[in-house]
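Ticket #4471: structure export looks truncated?
Reporter: QA, pipeline team
Priority: medium

Steps to reproduce: submit the single chain below to the structure queue and open the exported record.
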Amino acid sequence: MDVIGFVKKDYLLVISAVLALISLFLVPFDTIKTYNYDRILETICTLLIFLLIVAGLKECNALNKLAHKAVTNIRTTRALCLALILLPFFCAMFFSNDVALLTFVPLSITMLTMAGLKGTIIIVVVLQTVAANVGSYLTPFGNPHNLYIFNFMDHYGFTLWEYEATLIPIVVVGAIVLIAIAMMIKNKPLTAELEEDIELKDRKILIAICILFVIAIVTVLDLIPFYITLAVIVLAFLVMMPRVFTKVNYSILFIFFFLFLFANGLTNMSEVHSLITDLMEWDPMLTTVLVSQFTSNVPSTILLQPFTDDWAAVLVGADIGGFGTPIASMASIISIKLYLQEEDSSIKQYLKVFFAVNLVMLVVLIPTYYIFCV
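Actual output as written to the record:
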């Protein structure tokens, strides 16, 4: 692949690497050595664990099988669209929002085309993006910034229940709004036949992967040291499915580390430090939402977390901040890229629907935080 092709394919990786490199020249090397690398290392290793597991499940056709089962016996267009929208909502809780969209958006576009519903592709993909984001809020491993904050459990002293109680109102209200918008899709009988049944592959390996998945969840809950689980899972896949290592998108891990370097570099600049301190003293949740609109919610979390003891404000702010501009969440960028690969795609029409839906989510979820989460 040439340089231009690589930049186009992994432009987020390139941008984050450039930002990290610039930040290394902004602060003394002695300061760079003092960064808290333990936290970022734990987060990256945990992400790798789940990326390997999801890649294994996809190799076994487990996620495609799940999608096919969800739309079996559906007889109306609205029910089909709703099923396709809710798939990433529930799957993002366990496999992350990015993975849910990478799996189900292409599958949904294919199914809607086969069903003669190309006119609903834009609204379904936009709502799938919303669904994946909202669903991912509920678990610590649903998205990278949630996992990053959760790894500070001992630092902030919150419990798993306090963590979940903070996010449940956002998830519930977000799901209600999501379903309400989906119910506006025109309903009529579904006449076209969808693709034939999908067969699972490597059933014994699939069972083993499911066991590894349970171990990974236990690890996130801090019941098993992450480095032990990482070693076990890497060894297990090397033995039973070595090809899975070629299916993992490692760029997300490097992006996370580069953004960590960049955020720490910024916060060690006195002018930036002073500005962020003032903004976080004003309103940490709204500040996180606003910063996310321009930097994406992952770097905003890494950047703003050190400036407040209100972990819940940064957590919810990063989650809500994923709505708004297309760059507010990596999930939104993924969906746009997948949609634009289709023939007759219209970025103008897509963005029109995207901004309308995202504005509704912001208008509803920001007050939800102040009513139920403060």
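Status: closed, not a bug. The export was complete when the record was re-opened. Leaving a note from the reviewer for reference: Residues 15-373 form one domain.
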